[in-house]
Design brief:
By secondary structure, the chain is an alpha/beta fold. 72% of the residues lie in helices and 8% in strands. The chain folds into three domains: 26-130; 133-293; 350-387, no CATH class. The chain has helices at 2-132, 134-152, 192-198, 203-228, 245-254, 256-264, 272-293, 295-348; strands at 158-160, 172-174, 183-186, 238-241, 267-270, 352-354, 369-373, 379-384. The longest helix has 131 residues, at 2-132. The termini are far apart.
Length: 387
Amino acid sequence: MREPSLQLACIVAALVILSWTVVSHRAANRQREAAVVAEMRLGELLRAQNEMQGRVAAMAEVFGARQAETNQGINQRLDGLTQRLGQSISEQTRTTHENLRRLQERLAVIDTAQANIQSLAKDVVGLQAILANKQTRGAFGQARMETIVADGLPIGAYEFQAQLANGVRPDCVIRMPNGQPPLVIDAKFPLEAWNAMGGAGTPEASKAASQQFRRDMEVHIRDISEKYLQPGETQDTAFLFVPSESIFASIHESFEGIVQRAHRARIVIVSPSLLLLSIQVLQALLKDQRMREQAHVIQGEVLRLMEDLGRLDDRVRKLHGHFTSAQKDVDQILTSTEKLARRGARIGEMEFEVLTSQGATAPSPPATERAVESRTGQLKLRVVDED
């Protein structure tokens, strides 16, 4: 039993050794074939590497030339771009300087305007301070009224703060022509309620301010009527001066009752333009009065002028007679000079006759001519007498 098993094991071992040998032989063949293939591939790789190196060299040369051209083009473009940038920067700098100069000019104008605005603001603040103070506001209205009156009327035709018989002093008194009582002008306009009405923020406050303004105006109109309208001493009509055209228009538009009450009290509410117009009318009336007052003086001057004109007429007539007599003498002198001129012309036209050697003479002259022989007896002068 052991020998077959041993034989079988030997056979198996032989088979294994044979298989390993075959496999080893095949592996060696494969290695040789792989080595040959590797050598062939290595040769191909070397050839490819050589070709690649040649191509790389050619490409390096081409790239070098291209890079040189590119560098040259880039340099040229950089030079052009630098020049354009320089010009652009110069132009931009010039434009910037010009804009800065204009900006400085405008800033100077703005500074001047700001200074004017600040001065105007100070003036407005001062005006508000003036209008806030009742006495100062009255002085402001008084100043405007006095300016209008003084510019329109001659000195002596008006008086400011003149005292009446009842002891009150109206703002202005204008003397009327023809011995009429003077006209009174009041410039104390109540402005507190008006300003309150303009500054009211609610309808209730505006209504209350309007009522207060209406009451102040009614009280002021009554005071003017009682104090300044004195029969026989002043006119039965007085002016209430409002120092603003807008306030005057608003009163007539929104407070018709105040205007009617003033008319019934014979108080005329006037604005600066209406006061100026009234002053111009009064100026015309005063001028007409002065003309009538000076009418007798003008008439006397006209009479004396007529007397002087009569004397001048007599003297002119006498001078005309002298000129007529002198003209006659001049005419006679002219007649004599004309005769002398004609005689001189005839003398210049005298004819002379020369005797011939045979004693023959020229034809006999007319009967009106006289022959005058010369001392030599050879020439004859004919003189023609004409009247």
